[in-house]
Specification:
Blueprint lengths: L16 E4 L7 E2 L2 E5 L2 E9 L4 E9 L4 E5 L12 E5 L2 E9 L2 E9 L7 E2 L12 E5 L2 E5 L12 E5 L4 E5 L11 E5 L3 E5 L12 E5 L3 E5 L11 E5 L2 E10 L2 E10 L4 E5 L7 E2 L2 E5 L2 E5 L2 E2 L8 E5 L14 E3 L6 E5 L11 E7 L4 E6 L4 E5 L6 E9 L2 E9 L2
Antiparallel strand pairs: 1-27, 2-4, 3-4, 4-5, 5-6, 7-8, 8-9, 9-10, 11-12, 12-13, 13-14, 15-16, 16-17, 17-18, 19-20, 20-21, 21-22, 23-26, 24-25, 25-27, 28-29, 29-32, 30-31, 30-33, 33-34
Length: about 400
Amino acid sequence: MLLVLCASLGWGWAQTWTALPDFPGSLRDDGVAFVLGGKAYCGTGLNEGFAETGDFFAFDPVLNAWEPAPGLPVGAERQYACAWTHAGVACVFGGVRGSTYLNDVWSWSPGDPQWTRRTDLPDWGRSGMGCAVVGERVFVWGGKTAQAEAVSELWRYDPSADQWYREADAPFGGRWRMVMGAMGNQGFWMGLGRDSLGNFPTSVWGYSSALGWFSLPDFPGTGRTHASVVQVGGVGVVMGGRQNLSVLLDDVWGFDPQASNWERLMPTPSLNRSGAMGFAFGSQVYWATGLDSALQRTRSLWTLDLGAVLPSPEGLSSVRLYPNPAQDYFIVEWPAYSDFCAEPCTLTLYTLQGQIVYSQPLTTYATRVSCPSLSPGVYLAVLQTDFGGRVWRVVRGY
């Protein structure tokens, strides 16, 4: 693997949250976020007028700036959806609009002027479910329907075929507004949420198509719904959430599913928060919008560097890209002493408009990328691995 995680995360309390420019859309909570083409896209959710939204805004982590992005079509606004990316395409699934539970899927990729509808889930609409991309498969589990407070159904979506398949239901019952994350290319883990009886279980489970469902170590904190979860270095980072409308939480936890280890991290900034949108670039975690403990929706964006989880000097922070500016080529290089090997690792070059102009797997310590055919200008180079990613702003000289 590119990065080897220690059995104990050892992150401690050394990190510091930093405020960044506010989300430019309306005050909201319970939206979705995804990362694509070197930018994060945040949208949907419930605004301060208690209306569902469908607009999106893109955040550039190099410039620390927001810009408008294509939104869902009129009539497709929603709250409590889930989102994923696969092969350069983002999808938003399900959620609720008013009293209508949704089973539709919408896809979009940078450069598209609008979202495109894909095959609906062949079952009841649902909200507050979890999703995780595992290799070429997308798993969607749980959620709430018009018929049940929490369902235990597991569905698998094939993005290439645009088809849905039913997998094994969870043996422990359903949950709503849980957290869920991938375990590399092997399966996924999930935990927390609210069950059909209104309880807030702390049990954590894993699933793979080969092994089925299996138990993982319980979450050591308070049970909750409406937490945010992002993947950093193969670790799931769980932020905030709430026990009920009057008890909102500010704690942050890291879960390494390979080592079966939970560890508490730096609490979230400002007020306690639920229903925020989380995303990550490499070791940098971002947390936007949400409902605070004063029950006010917010636009604020905060970031926290969790670089301590990446072994030094073998981590992504030690990867070099040079020369920059480049003329006819640049090189992406790991240190010779790093734990690099031919695991899934891809370098993709995007224009600032999100168009892919180069994408190749990296299989050696130093890869030369030829660029004489590129027009002079600025590009985003995105390195993506199973354990995180890194973004560079690359200048192609004249």
